[in-house]
Amino acid sequence: MKSLLILGAADGAMATYRTARALGYRTVAVDLRDTAPAVALADELLPVSTRDVSALTAILRGRSDVAGILAPSSDIALPTQLTLTERFGLPCGLTGATVEASVDKRRFRAVCDELGLPGYRWIDGPDWRAAGLRFPLVVKPADAQSSRGVTRCPDESTVDAAIADALEHSYGAGIVIEEEVLGQHCGCECVIDDGRVVFMALTERHLTPPPQATTTAHVLPAAVAGSVHDELVAAVDALCARLGYRRGPLNLDLVVDTGGRPRLIEMGARTGGDPLGELARHCYGINPIEASISVAVGAPLPPMPPPAEPRPVMVQLLNAADTGILTAVHGVEEARAWPEVVRIVLLAEPGRPVTATIDLTSKLGYALLAADTPAQLRETADRLLSTVRFEVRP
Questions:
Q1: Would you list the DSSP string of 354-381?
Q2: What is the DSSP string of 23-79?
Q3: What dihedral do alpha carbons 213, 251, 310, 262 form, nearest 10°?
Q4: Sheet of 151-153: strands edge to edge?
Q5: Preceding peptide of 275 cis, ω within 30°
Q6: If you write DSSP's letter for every residue of 94-112 in order, what string do you get?
Q7: Which residue, 59, 58, 74, is CA-closest to 28?
Q8: pTM of the full structure
Q9: Contact 186, 276 (CB under 8 A)
Q10: How far apart are CA 35 and CA 61, in angstroms?
Q11: Are 351 and 368 in contact (CB under 8 A)?
Q12: Which residues on adjacent β-strands are paired with residue 27?
């Protein structure tokens, strides 16, 4: 049986492990943490850093079963994916320019500016005063992911602490400061073939209030004008042409501004977490995760028929209200019986330290919801958050 080497076993990758198994592949997880959520779904664990190219090269030299390598929901593992596939002659849609734009926000912003895409003012480094940037600002590491170290700053009093936090989370000690774009935050999951978008799912992304910028929910389909979709497809096609990206998954964060124009914020040439691939499958009947696996093994993409009439779906992230030790989880079985609940995934068991700070590394689970209308989704999500309770001992 052929194997897939999957770089990372965080919860955002869980759907990739399930889909790979359904397609008949063994899954080999690469993650230093044997407690990572997706490890339980893998057939094999390599306790190696996803960035340790030398160790993974030595391991792969002794194997003939690996048919492909992919890095779902993880920008920092993309350089490893590209290097290993080149060394071992495995299929890969990545290019060096694509990886660089995925892992370095400065490079992505520069490419968008070169293409003349709708943008906003930004600087590389901390000197926002000299650049004349106007508040509100967003301070972020140039090379981190999952909203780590990202702070929304309403005024000057918050900037110094935000810069220190961004530097602490940066792998290369670099930061970006941007003027915040006001409007509807969105997530975008694409499949690229022959250098063009063949599938796109655009979600409404709900965020924590400032100073954080962490996702709390995604709703699909996004309630935006059709012109936004068309403009976004054109922008992504131009981006792929500039980067030489011909085939594979593409995940984007963007804001549809108050004038109705999409402004790209970040990209990753991989599937998203949260879990956007599952949302797309339940909404449109098209699975971008299956497409990403096809690219990784050099197989034809699965059929991409016109999307079905979308059914409103939502992923709601679950977090603790207090910091301490998790002692019990209440209300899960009750909520699972609701007709709108497709799946509830818990990522923590009693005995684990938890934090009330909302970020993508502290979430304790998520719920996938489906309903006839967006209003029913919101009502179900509100009921879910009051029903599923995490009991925490200080």
A1: E-SS--TTT--EEEEEE-SSHHHHHHHH
A2: TT-EEEEE-S-TTSGGGGG-SEEE-S-TT-HHHHHHHHHT-S-EEEEE-TT-STTHH
A3: 70
A4: 122-124, 175-179, 137-141, 151-153
A5: yes
A6: --HHHHHHHH-HHHHHHHH
A7: 59
A8: 0.93
A9: no
A10: 27
A11: no
A12: 4
Calpha distance 36→59 (Å, rounded): 21
Strand partners, 255: 185, 263
CA nearest to 202, candidates 148, 249, 256: 256
- CA dist list (Å): 70 to 164, 192, 221, 277, 286: 33, 15, 27, 15, 19
Phi-psi region of 355 (alpha: psi -120 to 50; beta: other; left: phi over 0): beta
Report how far residue 297's alpha carbon sits from residue 315's, in angstroms, rounded to the nearest whole number.
Answer: 29
Spatial distance between the Cα atoms of 325 and 394, rounded to a whole number of angstroms: 6
Residue in this structure with the two tokens 């994916």, named with its chain if needed: 81
Please work out, in degrees rounded to the nearest 5, the angle formed at the alpha carbon of residue 321 by the alpha carbons of 315 and 327.
Answer: 100
Two tokens at 218? Answer: 């995604």
Helix residue ranges, H only, the chain: 14-22, 53-61, 78-88, 96-103, 105-115, 128-131, 159-169, 226-243, 276-284, 288-297, 332-336, 374-387
Backbone angles phi, psi at 285, to 5 degrees: 75, 15
- Of the candidates 66, 4, 92, 69, which has an alpha carbon nearest to the alpha carbon of residue 41? 4
Each residue's pLDDT expressed in tens, for the chain with a length of 394 residues: 999 999 999 999 999 999 999 999 999 999 999 999 999 999 999 999 999 999 999 999 989 999 999 999 889 999 999 999 999 999 999 999 999 999 999 999 999 999 999 999 999 999 999 899 999 999 999 987 777 889 999 999 999 999 999 999 888 869 999 999 999 999 999 999 999 999 999 999 998 888 887 889 999 999 998 899 999 999 999 999 999 999 999 999 999 999 999 999 999 999 998 788 999 999 998 999 999 999 999 999 988 877 668 999 999 999 988 899 999 999 999 999 999 999 999 998 899 898 876 666 678 999 999 999 999 999 999 999 999 999 999 9
Distance CA 83, CA 124 (A): 27
